[in-house]
Amino acid sequence: MRDPAAGRSAWAAQANADTRDEGATLTYEGPHPFGGETLHRWRLGNGLTVLVLVDVTAPIVAYYTWINVGSRHERPGKTGLAHLFEHLMFGETEKLGAGAFDRKLEEIGAETNAATWVDWTYYHELIPADRIKLTIKLEAERLERLVLKEPQVASEKDVVANERRYRVDDDVEGFASELLYKTAFELHPYHWPTIGWMDDIRGFTPEDCVAFYRTYYAPNNATLVVVGHVRERDILLAIRDAYGRIPRQTVPAEDVAPEPTQLSQRQLSIRKPTTSEKLAVAFKGPALGDADHAALTVLSEVLFGGRASRLYRSLVVERELALDVRGWVSTFRDPGLFECWTTARASHTAAEILPVLDEAFERARMDLVGEEELARAQARLELGAVQQLETMSGKAEQIGFFETVLGDPTHAFHRVQAFRRTTAGDLRRVARRYLLHSARTVLTVVPETGPAPAGAAQ
Q1: Torsion angle, CA of 279/378/409/144, rounded to 10 degrees?
Q2: How confident is the model at residue 60, as a pLDDT?
């Protein structure tokens, strides 16, 4: 039987004979089973990782550029730089004038966007398959030749400052979420928001931006994910020719302070222009790569997932105390939070809701979840995971996310298996380990005209 890996390695050796540039050499690093398909990993000599999944179901391609940088890589006084670059990267380059990047992609019918979070930044396009080479050239251009002078930086700082006003300062839940993480974390970079503090945003200089760009926007700190109707060898040669000349950079080792153990509950209240009270309870949770993460996610689904969940039935349907409930276990590289949010109904209060939450948490710590509840939660989570892989963009996003955060581009499938393996005993164990009164932060949002909750810090 012919060995596909050997065939790819032999082809790479032949392709490398055509170039004298060490940074442009191609190395095949092996296949990754991806459901019923195969994902192939390649690396250029300059360190650029390329993940290719051929999917011929439609004549389109999802092209994602993942940069291993997020707000965790910033420092106090310079928060928000990673997010600012999400905006700057759509600006002027040495070869492209302002607005030319978007215009060229719009002309070929492409969709393009970007996102930044605590652990990563990505840029993506969904394009007609026959225009992939144009996209490769455009992406390589802005990875290497972005213009970062005073006019460009000042313009995007204004855009980001306005975004912060809209999404945080003037948004009740955005403000509350930022304050929740600021309170729950004291030392770890998850303490500050990805969008950055306003004073830091206003203080960025072109020199700050150039230093950040030359440090983190390097081929050896990036991963390209290509999913769609492509010929693998043609794509690799196009990527080699466009990116191979970009020099690798020295990416500094992370120096992230571990968060100290929380020994007592943190509680605070804020007044905001809202018609009803809101309550957030956040426990310290495991990192995404921790074996407990899947089990705590299943427990969150039992408590908060859908209309059949325990707390939806209890708070929304039976007692009519809340309008909505939701829970989420943060999918971060380092330990994050298990967030629990509710919005009170009409004249009801967070003080009425908190004992009901505590009752549910205590039940989870003491009793085993029934087989039917467990199976329903597992099925909902598995369905959600499968739905994220239905499209080419969905596949590319999941591949890049898990590659960047965990170093495993196929982790979406391992995660589904972990959901399936979770037992009722696992749920009780993680409830006892993480749902600790002493390791939680309680935030109440009250209407500006209403009384402050008794015992809560203002």
Answers
A1: -30
A2: 97
Task: Give the domain CATH number at 400.
Answer: 3.30.830.10
Q: Residues 72, 149: one domain? A: yes
- Residue 111 in any domain: the answer is yes
Where does the pLDDT of residue 450 fall: very low under 50, low under 70, confident under 90, or very high at 90 and above? low
pLDDT band at 123 (very low <50, low <70, confident <90, very high): very high
**Domain-embedded: residue 205:** yes
Do 299 and 430 belong to one domain? Answer: yes
* Phi, psi values for residue 447, rounded to 5°: -60, 145
Mean pLDDT on 76-87: 97
Helix intervals (H) in 77-184 = 81-88, 100-107, 132-144, 150-164, 172-184
Q: Are strands 440-447 and 266-272 parallel, antiparallel or unpaired?
A: parallel
The single residue listed with the structure tokens 């982790």 is 411
Reported in sequence order, the residue ranges of 18-92 that DSSP labels E, i.e. its strands, are 26-34, 37-44, 49-54, 60-67
Question: How many domains does the structure of the chain reveal?
Answer: 2
The DSSP call for residue 438 is G
For 433, the domain range is 266-447
Mean pLDDT calculated for residue range 158-178: 97
Label residue 1 by pLDDT band (50, 70, 90).
Answer: very low
Kind plus residue range of the DSSP H or E element containing 424: helix 424-434
Give the C-alpha separation, 419 to 233, whole Å: 37
Whether residue 231 sits in one domain with residue 273: no
Residue 254 lies in a domain: no
Model confidence band, residue 257 (pLDDT cutoffs 50, 70, 90): confident
Nearest to 266 by CA among 239, 248, 284, 254: 284
Q: How many CB atoms lie within 10 A of CB 122?
A: 22
The overall pTM is greater than 0.90: yes
Angle between helices 150-164 and 206-216 in degrees, nearest 10? 90
